[in-house]
């Protein structure tokens, strides 16, 4: 168990904004189970009381008077390989669980929680500290769709973070029309010039950004350079439509942007979208003339600023679809 480990740069597969859901809990008398997967960090107000007592930004069960434990099941918004779990007991001091364990399973389709079987251990029963992020690295090489948090015997947990690598189901992809950069399809940010105000990983997250803080924003540049992000595509493909979304960025949107493709197999680089003027708070969409197949794409913004989302719609190559299918089968 460690504090603030490096795996936190990976996406939180359970996050509500990524489609996660707390689909079952045996008890939530003091605080609702849905709080477990909120994206925002937990908060606390000393003088906030409800009809059940102090209001907590987390999941809290009643005090047990008989042997047993409490559990909550989370459907991952992004099914994938789990690399680490964080059981955050922020603000729970005299009421946190002394121990917790985490199991996971992989299900097909959209099962009812009572139909889930085949649970495998990710984190054995382990001690927790109160009011802290309890981090556990996971040694598993399988694709999971659900996780189950069990607390021993009862108490409160503010957040459950499930960090990992998304693995898409190829049956749900349309090879001729897919967002090649999307996190949920297997895309990943592999480099960037600056992330002062927001993570570049937000650019390829599912859905639309609700606020400026859900995008990527750099510090103000005081030199002649520009900022950039490098994205490893879900698999080899040819981009046909570029979407550059500056929604919510008004006085801080980039003035211009360009996109460059790269094929790691050959080392070739080529323009996908030339340097193009952008408008603030606008969802820009640019059709792209036929360009070569790429495995990576670099977004350059000029000179700096913020962007909500980057979408690179296009066609998976035969080899690209084969690679996604192979990875899915190896991890299922």
TrEMBL record:
<dbReference type="Pfam" id="PF03561">
    <property type="entry name" value="Allantoicase"/>
</dbReference>
<dbReference type="InterPro" id="IPR008979">
    <property type="entry name" value="Galactose-bd-like_sf"/>
</dbReference>
<feature type="domain" description="Allantoicase">
    <location>
        <begin position="186"/>
        <end position="316"/>
    </location>
</feature>
<feature type="domain" description="Allantoicase">
    <location>
        <begin position="19"/>
        <end position="166"/>
    </location>
</feature>
<dbReference type="InterPro" id="IPR005164">
    <property type="entry name" value="Allantoicase"/>
</dbReference>
<dbReference type="InterPro" id="IPR015908">
    <property type="entry name" value="Allantoicase_dom"/>
</dbReference>
<comment type="similarity">
    <text>Belongs to the allantoicase family.</text>
</comment>
<keyword id="KW-0378">Hydrolase</keyword>
<keyword id="KW-0659">Purine metabolism</keyword>
<comment type="pathway">
    <text>Nitrogen metabolism; (S)-allantoin degradation; (S)-ureidoglycolate from allantoate (aminidohydrolase route): step 1/1.</text>
</comment>
<protein>
    <recommendedName>
        <fullName>Probable allantoicase</fullName>
        <ecNumber>3.5.3.4</ecNumber>
    </recommendedName>
</protein>
């Amino acid at each position: 168990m460690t504090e603030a480990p490096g795996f936190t740069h990976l996406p939180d597969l359970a996050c509500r904004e990524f489609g996660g859901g707390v689909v079952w809990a045996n008890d939530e008398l003091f605080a609702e189970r849905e709080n477990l997967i909120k994206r925002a960090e937990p908060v606390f107000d000393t003088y906030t009381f409800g009809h059940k007592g102090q209001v907590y930004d987390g999941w809290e069960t009643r005090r047990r008077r008989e042997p047993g434990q409490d559990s909550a099941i989370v459907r991952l918004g992004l099914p994938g390989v789990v690399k680490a779990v964080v059981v955050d007991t922020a603000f729970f001091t005299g009421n946190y669980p002394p121990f917790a364990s985490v199991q996971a399973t992989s299900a097909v389709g959209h099962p009812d929680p009572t139909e889930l079987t085949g649970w495998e251990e990710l984190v054995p029963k382990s001690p927790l500290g109160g009011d802290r992020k309890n981090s556990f690295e996971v040694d598993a090489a399988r694709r999971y769709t659900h996780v189950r948090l069990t607390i021993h015997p009862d108490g409160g947990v503010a957040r459950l973070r499930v960090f990992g690598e998304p693995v898409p189901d190829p049956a749900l992809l349309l090879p001729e029309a897919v967002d090649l950069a999307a996190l949920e399809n297997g895309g990943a940010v592999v480099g960037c010039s600056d992330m002062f105000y927001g993570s570049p990983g937000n650019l390829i997250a599912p859905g639309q950004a609700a606020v400026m803080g859900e995008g990527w924003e750099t510090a103000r540049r005081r030199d002649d350079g520009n900022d950039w992000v490098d994205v490893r595509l879900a698999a080899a493909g040819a981009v046909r439509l570029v979407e550059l979304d500056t929604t919510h960025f008004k006085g801080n949107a980039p003035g211009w942007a360009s996109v460059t493709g790269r094929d790691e197999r050959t080392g070739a680089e080529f323009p996908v979208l030339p340097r193009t003027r952008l408008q603030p708070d606008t969802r820009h969409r640019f059709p792209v003339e036929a360009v070569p197949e790429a495995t990576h794409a670099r977004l350059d913004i000029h000179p700096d600023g913020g962007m909500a989302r980057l979408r690179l719609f296009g066609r998976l190559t035969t080899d690209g679809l084969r690679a996604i299918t192979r990875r899915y089968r190896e991890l299922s």
